[in-house]
User: What shape does this take?
Amino acid sequence: MPEPYDDGAIAGTGAGGAMDLAASEATTLERTPGGPQGTGPAEKARSLWSDAWRDLRRNPVFIISSLVILFLVVISLWPSLIASGNPLQCDLAKAQEGSQPGHPFGYNGQGCDVYTRTVYGARTSVTVGVCTTVGVALFGSFVGGLAGFFGGGWDALLSRVTDIFFGIPVVLGGLVFLSVVTSSTVWPVIGFMILLGWPQIARIARGSVITAKQNDYVQAARALGASNSRMLLRHIAPNAVAPVIVVATIALGTYIALEATLSYLGVGLKPPTVSWGIDISAASQYIRNAPHMLLWPAGALAVTVLAFIMLGDAVRDALDPKLR
Amino acid sequence: MLLEVRDLQVEFKTRDGVAKAVNGVNYSVDAGETLAVLGESGSGKSVTAQAVMGILDMPPGRIAGGEILFQGRDLLKLKEDERRKVRGSEMAMIFQDALSSLNPVLSVGDQLSEMFTVHRGMSRKEGRAKAVELMDRVRIPAAKERVGQYPHQFSGGMRQRIMIAMALALEPSLIIADEPTTALDVTVQAQVMDLLAELQRELNMGLILITHDLGVVADVADKIAVMYAGRIVEQAPVHDIYKAPAHPYTKGLLESIPRLDQKGRELYAIKGLPPNLMHIPPGCAFNPRCPMARDVCRSEVPPLFDVAPDRQSACFFWKETLDG
Amino acid sequence: MGRYVIRRLLQMIPVFFGATLLIFLMVNVMGDPIAGLCGDKACDPSTAAQLKKEFGLDKPVWQQYLTYMGNVFTGDFGTAFNGQKVTELMSAAFPVTIRLTIVAILFEIVIGISLGVVTGLRRGRPVDTVVLMLTLVVIAIPVFVTGLLLQLLLGVEWGIVKPTVQPEAPFNELLIPGLVLASVSLAYVTRLTRTSIAENARADYVRTAIAKGLPRRRVITRHLLRNSLIPVVTFIGTDVGALMGGAIVTERIFNIHGVGYQLYQGILRQSTQTVVGFVTVLVLVFLIANLIVDLLYAVLDPRIRYA
Assistant: This one.
């Protein structure tokens, strides 16, 4: 097997669409060189993070994207802080009207206030992104970690299972799987994205566990008779977790974009859920006459996705000593 | 004189400030002569050599002053294209780690023949024949069969021979060898060093040997320049230095060589750490580590004092050092 | 090498069957496979029972799957909702999508790699920062938004290209759709190339090449690019499968009658055979593309040996 590249640069390229691509750049992290010999793993991991933190505090990209994300989280928890209207209260008479006092973003095709809907849409997107990422990260690192740690037959079996889920194109899978769903909640979409998203993290986790396992101090711990669970938790996990966090952060943005894409294809979220994807999709048929209906939710979506990608990017750069 | 470096100054711009890597270095080499440049890592010995070769990374590097006279011309005044024609054909460099210094995806034959096709306008076929000839010359067995192989297929010693062959390809008048044997097994070190010395005699080349290994130096060098914190602290014919060093730093270096006749005695080590190039101590850079340091060492930079003909020391107390 | 290929082919088998079984199960969950067969109305019970028997739908799912796969291997992908052979649909749809994918790949290679090389060599300069930001913006905007906007601006407002593509889908009409399809991957190719170039530019062997007195152009093309493009080539290779599967969004925007279009129709009409057939072929394409990429390593990087 061509191991040096097997889990790195091309790890994420399979499933098509937006979900898989974050991995391509996280590759360098897996080869993070060990610190001075003799320092313990936990200590090393701690200094890795504290070095990164010192770097991040001064990085404007990190600060800006963190502020954007903080803002998004706040308005998804309390949308009424900045939007007084009701996103579901619409007046058909005002359909497609442009910007006017009190309604800066104008009205959409159903005469709903675009500003209010854009603000309320943040909650859906953040929920979808966060829940999917947590699910993918937990399940993916679990499977990938087991495969990488135990190796041999377990690795072969789990890697094949990973390949199977990886081999299904995401958007197509979404069309097939979600077209039967009638629920208008966010859960089927989240469930589906976890179902096809976990292999990406599993591959990253497997790769970094294998790398961590080969470190001298881990070999030493093994030679000293450390138990499996102790090795995994104390020696391997602290150092394998960084690439997973980076990729997951970047992936979070792409999950939000994927939800919108699925909604555009008509199989994602459904009204009365308020979502940027639904609004963009609905606006696309009015794009010639009333582009504002599309641009505001699309802009909000792009800024959100961008914020997560840039946050992940900044964290990765900070964690990668080679780029210093 | 073949090469004369005069008052060379090199700085590196880093995020935390300017690092002064070379601060006014003077040395010279004649045809057929071997100059050994000695020093710890960070002493500026490699940077000086890279400046001579014209392969410094600029930026972040910057030549802040000085002259590099090669066969009477100041290389720093040449245009990049003229400079390039000097590299490889009139002066060549041998690097420490042959495995990483050879291109992993090109056969050694391609990498050797490139010298002839690019600099001499030979055809690929002629270049190939020359490559085999060169490999024979550095005594690589079965050169004809191995010319198409890749660097990773050779042993460490053989790879370093290929590096030497590449440097000698166009019979340059100056060779710079940057720790050419450090990465090799002890048994192979002597062979490679002997080969290099032999070829140097044969072709009457000037050789700058950069090393921190005093053992290697004694056998092959004619004169020694000892560097510390970007300056030459002592310069002398090789035997004089071994007999009686005229600088406390040189003395420390010599005393830290393990010797069989002093078995059982504790090994001497120079106390303290090499200085941070961004904050070089005022006065003599070595003063914080020097057992003989007085007030003057902390306030004034010692010039190079003439100790004897062809011999200088940058120590205010060179006499005392020499005597005791 | 031969043994490696065989081992990889053997590894592909469970993945292929696993992925197709997964899709088969999903489609079966999806709904009533014969619902579309009696026109717009629901079938009356007796016809339904007869149809079910005819298609073997009264048997357990695993048996249906085996029968289906058996047929597939004899080249019989079944019948679509309108009585057309699925293979016929495929022979109409795949050439279109393949053309679209070729256009997209060309964009990735030409634009993505060029931008990556330029920025990688000028890391930290303004051009690098600008391109890097642009790639992030492209990645952040969902493909369907990029597509709709490009279609609106180039096709409708400025009238530079036709906003939709004719059924024959000639290459020149596929330029904009190809760019849209490539957009996100293109951004990744740029970033990947940039990272790889910047990393390798500091490699010892590049320093050696400079010390050999080679002209800058030769140092870059022969020494730096050759090494840096290994991960990029493999990315693009695996992307072939991903692009064909992801073409569904682009095809919908520009009304291209390719694989995505047929699949979309198949799903709307609940035509099990169409959906499973097309996805099976796509999974196969994806797996083969990955295999070829793995074998490409050996060609590109002599250090890699297959045991």
